[in-house]
Amino acid sequence: xxxxxxxxxxxxxxxxxxxxxxxxxxxKWRKKFENYIIASDLDSKTIQQQRAIxxxxxxxxxxxxxxxxxxxxxxxxxxxxxxxDKF
Length: 87
Description:
The model has no long low-confidence stretch (mean pLDDT 88). The chain is mainly α. It starts with 24 loop residues before the first helix and ends with a helix. The chain is 47% helix and 0% strand. It is globular. This is K02A2.6-like.
């Protein structure tokens, strides 16, 4: 089980689980994470911190998919929006 990153006393959404039979699952999870960004003030952190938090929260299955995207990670890229859009 992934340890929760609690920011401002707000637990993150649970890890994303892939379900090919539910095409609405990703948009729902993404909206929960976007709400978490706002409520936890995550957007005040560096892009690297934001990315690390997203990739920690998203879970093992989605992290494996992320690893296939071929992003070149640096201080400014990819942003969490870039990652979410790729999913």
